[in-house]
TrEMBL record:
Record has Transmembrane helix as a keyword: yes
Domain Histidine kinase span(s) in chain numbering: 453-668
Native species: Paramagnetospirillum magneticum (strain ATCC 700264 / AMB-1)
Subcellular location: Membrane
GO cellular component: membrane
SUPFAM superfamilies: ATPase domain of HSP90 chaperone/DNA topoisomerase II/histidine kinase, Homodimeric domain of signal transducing histidine kinase, PYP-like sensor domain (PAS domain)
Annotated signal peptide: none
InterPro entries: CHASE_dom, CHASE_sf, HATPase_C_sf, HATPase_dom, His_kinase_dom, HisK_dim/P_dom, HisK_dim/P_sf, PAS
Gene Ontology annotations of biological process type: regulation of DNA-templated transcription
PANTHER family associated with the record: PAC DOMAIN-CONTAINING PROTEIN, PHYTOCHROME-LIKE PROTEIN CPH1
UniProt keywords, alphabetically: Kinase, Membrane, Phosphoprotein, Transferase, Transmembrane, Transmembrane helix
Presence of the UniProt keyword DNA-binding in the record: no
Record protein name field: histidine kinase
Residue ranges of every copy of the PAS domain listed in the record: 311-381
Amino acid sequence: MGTMAGGLAIRVKWQKLSTWLPLLVAALITACSGLVLLKVYALQAERRHEAARAELLSQLSVLRARLEYNLTAPLLISRGLVAQIVYHDGMSDADFRRAASLVIRDYDSIRNLTMSRGTVISSVYPEAPNRAALGVDYRTKPDQWPTVQQAITSRKPVVAGPVNLIQGGAALIGRVPVYLPDPAGGESRLFGLISVVIDMPKVFLASGLDARLLPMELALRGRDGLGRSGEMIWGDEAVFLRSPVEMEVTLPDGTWAMAAIPKGGWAASDGQLRVTAGMGAVLFLLTVLASFGWAFHVRRQQRAVRLVAESEERYRALMETAPMAVVVHRDGVILFANTQATRTVRAPAGETLIGRKVLDFVFPDDRADVAARMGAAMADPETVVGGPVRYVARDGRVVECEVITTRVTLDGEPAVLSVVLDVSQRNQAERERERLLESLQRSNEDLQQFAYIASHDLQEPLRNVAGYVQLLGRRYRGRLDKDADDFIAFAVQGTKRMQEMIANLLDYSLLHREDGEPACVDSRGPLDEALADLGAAMDESGAVVEVVGVMPVVLARRVELARIFLNLIGNAIKYRRADTVPRIRIFARRDGLTWVFSVADNGIGMEPAYLDRIFTLFQRLHSRETYDGTGIGLAICRKLVQHNGGRIWAESEPGQGSTFHFSLQAAD
């Protein structure tokens, strides 16, 4: 047995593996082709990227050369002026202007040449547009003094900028310190500085730096010659963060960092690469369709081969595990019977029912009916017949069953399929339930009859006792001592309370005896009837009753609903505060499938701990000297509400009044 189970498990695992094997092969082919295409694309992209970087590097080299020339050439002319100043041991302002006019005319990008004596500007050429700079002390200009001070201290040329000029505009300023030698051979002394102010827009334009015409996105940084660590000079700083081609622009005393990427970024720089990617995607899609198409075709073939075997296995497994007996028979001979069928007839373990006659197991009185059903099923394939059948088990017990019979085809020939459900326990439970219901109904009727008879039979002797006690009170009042009068009064009051309690108990026991079924009732009608009955009590107490909103239509018994309102409103009037006008609010709200009615008052209220006790028979929270009554009114309300399919509850606080709620089913 264990070997068979192991073999079956291995076969099931192999079937599952063979089902998924074509898909696994297709997935492997797809993955391999995808990896190959990705590798080819990556190599192509790398090659194209390197070619694009090389081309961009070549273009950037040309721009750098132009920019270096247009920046360096104007800066070098200052050295000729320095040489003249040193040679002549100084220079007048007029000589400086003449010399400057000679050298500046060949350079359109030079805005002006400036000479300072010490740190004070003494001469500038051309003078007319730059007159505002004359007499300015560099030390008073925080934006220019650091580079001036650096040039004086280092005794080397310093390139500053771009900076904001005193006379307006922005430019690059080359500052060359001028030191005159000491004739006595001592330390040279500072004469001043020669400053060359270069118009940056003209330099950029002459170098070809026009964002609209450039085939690239270009950015420059390195203010004051600080290279990549300097501030931005031209372009978008984000270019430096997008893997650019970079070069350094060399200045006389520093560098600028130049970065460039193709317009639109590297991804948009190569249309041929996009074509390659599109062709690769198409090829990959064709590979996916071909491989998975083959896989699904193989799976369909495998599934078609497997369906026949699985269908039989599923059918047998379903039949063997079904909680109902399943029997297939032809000409009254059993061809198939599941495990539950052998259990139904209590056959011994290992015994088969195949080959036995069906009617051998049928109770003799039911055999004719079963034979007729079998004949009807065989005559018409569309006929499904069913009904109760009694079977005789192997141990002699009678098994009550429900049987459904129809015609099926087995091995190409018609046969009868019978589905048998053992209902012996269900029928026994149903009979027991009916017996218990009958017993309970008799008990309830006996209890109601007892309560009615007891209450009714107690009335007569109690009336006799009450009559004689009252007669004693009238005849002997004042003739005996005071205690006797009190005792007689107590006896009279006790008999009256007993009569009232017996009457209420009789009323309670007679509830629902002839009440009919709930019907659609407009709750405003029973409410108005209750208010009319309480008219005298309302007039006496001065109670104000307010009905809020529209009263709904509910499923209830009209008389019982009126009595519920009567008891609840009567209690609200009875348990009022002595110093307050009774005010009673009645309203209803929808809660799902029910309506919840509320009767709220401003009376004496009660402790929340007592809210469950007040609906119990004969429960009172106050003495009879304070409030009269027998304590049965709320018990009657609860019984009436429950009889109409609802529930009742209360909310209250001492001195704050009470609100009684009860629910009834909505009519819609």
